[in-house]
Write a structure and sequence with these properties.
Blueprint lengths: L1 E3 L6 E3 L19 E4 L6 E6 L4 E5 L6 E4 L5 E3 L4 E3 L6 E3 H12 L11 H11 L10 H17 L12
Antiparallel strand pairs: 1-2, 3-4, 3-7, 4-5, 5-6, 8-9
Length: 164
């Protein structure tokens, strides 16, 4: 199939995308997502810049910011939840995947629920979580992050062997 450019009259081939496999480079990895202290939401790490790291919000606005030396950036693949097991922690991505497997998109509560509900929720997802070291504020943050990731990067919630 050919399409002619109306300006130069040169023929161009039209590429058919129907039979192309899904593009893996569009898949977001947990190692590309960060939280910035003092800022709400989650951010995709784009690239280092002269003044800091360039980040883009993971929401419809796609706001870009430069996080400098005064910002504390936490990459999500480096975050773990404290447990009472021998290992002592469980990676955040595993907890997010457990929440997805157990609840899907309907958690039955939100980050504004009361402390007892939030702790009961956490106990149902990760029975061995350390009640003394995992604060209610941490559970609220986990629920907010889960909501953002399930909406903007649901591929992270599906268990894969290649997940970093």
């Amino acid at each position: 199939m050919e399409i002619k450019n109306l300006i130069s009259k040169k023929p161009y081939r039209m590429i058919e995308f129907a039979n192309i496999a899904p593009l893996n480079f569009l898949r977001m990895e947990i190692s590309e997502i960060a939280s910035v202290s003092g800022k709400s939401g989650l951010y995709k790490i784009l690239k280092p810049g002269k003044a800091g790291v360039v980040l883009e919000s993971i929401d419809a606005a796609k706001t870009k910011i430069v996080a400098g030396a005064t910002h504390r950036i936490s990459v999500l693949n480096e975050i773990s939840i404290y447990t009472t097991t021998k290992e002592g922690t469980v990676p955040l991505v595993e907890v997010l995947q457990k929440i997805n497997a157990q609840f899907g998109n309907d958690l039955g509560l939100d980050s504004e629920s009361d402390a007892n509900e939030l702790q009961a929720f956490m106990k149902s997802v990760l029975p061995e979580f350390d009640v003394e070291r995992v604060y209610v504020s941490d559970i609220k943050k986990l629920i907010r992050w889960y909501g953002i990731i399930s909406k903007e990067a649901p591929e992270i919630l599906k268990p894969t062997e290649l997940q970093s």
